[in-house]
Design brief:
Blueprint (H helix, E strand, L loop, with lengths): L1 E10 L3 H8 L2 H6 L4 E6 L6 E5 L10 E11 L3 E7 L3 E11 L4 E11 L4 H27 L1
Antiparallel strand pairs: 1-7, 2-3, 3-4, 4-5, 5-6, 6-7
C-alpha cells in the first residue's frame, strides 16, 4: 500500500522566503516530528534522516538517505528518501499570486515493512501541519 498526500499552503510572504525554507534540507527535516536527528552534506545537500517510527517491527531509528533529485529554483524541488523501512518522495512547488505565495506539497510514502503505511496514513496530515507551522514561523520572522 502506498500513501499519497497533496496539501496546499498559503502564506503572506514573498515567494523567495518560502523557497529559502522549503529548499533547505535541514529546515525540512527539522519540521518532521519522526526525524529524531539528521546530517546534511553541505557539499551535495544530501541528508541522512534518523527516523523513529512507533511500529512493532522497527525497534530503533531507521536511516533514510535523502537527496534532491530535481530543483528549479525558486519554484520547485523534489526529494527522494530511501531506506530499508520506507521510500518517501516529496515535491514542493512555490507559486506566486497577486496577494500571497502558495506552496503545493505532494508526498508519496511506500512502506517496506508492515505498519509503515498505516502509520503514515494516520499521521501524514499532522506531519504536514508541522511543516506548515514551521514554515509560517520562518517567513513571519523574516517579515
Amino acid at each position: 500500500m502506498t500513501v499519497r498526500v497533496r496539501r496546499v499552503f498559503e502564506f503572506d510572504a514573498p515567494p523567495e522566503a518560502v523557497w529559502d525554507f522549503i529548499a533547505d534540507p535541514s529546515k525540512r527535516a527539522d519540521a518532521i516530528s519522526v526525524v529524531e536527528r539528521y546530517e546534511v552534506d553541505e557539499g551535495t545537500g544530501a541528508a541522512t534522516w534518523h527516523v523513529r517510527l512507533p511500529i512493532p517491527l522497527v525497534k530503533s531509528t531507521a536511516r533514510v538517505e535523502t537527496e534532491d533529485v530535481e530543483r528549479d529554483p525558486p519554484r520547485y524541488v523534489k526529494f527522494v528518501g530511501k531506506s530499508s523501512v520506507l521510500r518517501v518522495t516529496g515535491e514542493h512547488t512555490v507559486e506566486s499570486t497577486d496577494s500571497h505565495t502558495r506552496l503545493v506539497n505532494e508526498f508519496v510514502v511506500d512502506g517496506r515493512v508492515p505498519g509503515v503505511e498505516r502509520f503514515f496514513k494516520r499521521n501524514l496530515d499532522e506531519e504536514l501541519e508541522n511543516l506548515e507551522r514551521a514554515l509560517s514561523r520562518a517567513v513571519e520572522s523574516e517579515s
